TrEMBL record:
Entry keywords, A to Z: Membrane, Transmembrane, Transmembrane helix
This protein's name: DUF1206 domain-containing protein
Pfam family, one: DUF1206
Location of the DUF1206 domain: 30-96, 114-180, 204-272
Highest classification ranks of the organism: Bacteria, Bacillati, Actinomycetota, Actinomycetes, Micrococcales
Spans through the membrane: 30-51, 74-96, 117-134, 154-175, 206-227, 247-268
């Protein structure tokens, strides 16, 4: 029993040493670059749609576009490695990063970083899937899952909860953008114009992503109320639904530009993020 405890402690110390290493930090920061590229391409596709073009304005469409470019496969694998490294870093924060915090703050800290770990893990897995030649229509996948959940009352309640949760996250993104709360996660920014430009990019990006998530969550809820899984079309459907509103093309265009700004901000964030 004592030997097992010592081995467990040794493994924990090793994991903590790895998470604190400079090499691991560099890989984790690359995850922010991967997320930035994803949002830039997502915004470009959405902007193309707003201007009357076509394209899948979702994660799958953006990753496919990235893979179709020069050195696409290599770039996808690099993004996968960076995203997974960032997910592991966030996971290490769950276990090792709460030291020194008040007990009342530890649960919130761990839940927040745990959610980020899952998010970047999913992004990394998606990059890896496309790099290996896989991929699927995310809109159809979302509809399939929604149809399965809507087939029973418990599933419908869960889908409503998912929609509400996505809207809460979207609202938090808007709040973070408007109040500049995201600056809490950054080290000292450059002075004068450069620093102000980074903050403005972050503000525009956070608000735009928040709007996209609010619409996505609302579509989940509406689809569940109407018992119509075809209305649950994922982010692509959420963005394209903005076109059905008055001045929809302009609204979608503004959100698209905001998503591009968020992507550029994420690339810059890889340099200034507190780790």
């Amino acid at each position: 029993m004592g030997e097992a405890k010592r081995q467990a402690g040794k493994a924990k110390d090793t994991a903590e040493d790895v998470s604190d290493s400079k090499a691991f930090e560099v890989l984790a920061r690359a995850g922010y670059i991967a997320a930035g590229l994803l949002h830039i391409l997502l915004g470009v596709i959405a902007l193309r749609v707003a201007m009357g073009g076509s394209g899948e304005a979702d994660q799958g469409g953006a990753i496919s576009a990235l893979g179709d470019g020069p050195g696409g496969s290599l770039l996808l694998w690099a993004c996968a490695i960076g995203s997974i490294a960032l997910a592991l870093f966030m996971l290490s924060e769950v276990f090792f990063g709460a030291r020194g915090l008040k007990d009342s703050d530890k649960l919130k800290f761990r839940a927040k970083n745990g959610a980020k770990a899952v998010t970047y893990g999913v992004i990394g897995g998606t990059f890896a899937t496309y790099a290996a030649g896989g991929g699927s229509d995310s809109g159809e996948s979302t509809q399939g899952v929604s149809a399965t959940l809507m087939s029973n009352p418990a599933g419908s309640v869960l889908l409503m909860a998912v929609g509400a949760g996505v809207m809460v996250v979207g609202g938090y993104f808007v709040y973070s953008g408007v109040t500049r709360k995201f600056k809490e996660n950054l080290k000292s920014l450059p002075g004068k114009g450069a620093g102000q430009a980074i903050v403005r990019l972050g503000m525009a990006g956070y608000v735009a992503k928040g709007v996209a998530l609010l619409v996505l969550g609302l579509l989940f809820i509406v689809a569940t109320i109407n018992n119509d899984p075809e209305e649950s079309t994922g982010l692509d459907g959420a963005l394209k639904s903005l076109q059905d509103q008055p001045y929809g093309a302009w609204i979608l265009g503004a959100v698209a530009v905001g998503l591009i700004a968020y992507g550029v901000f994420m690339v810059i964030r890889s340099r200034y993020q507190k780790m």
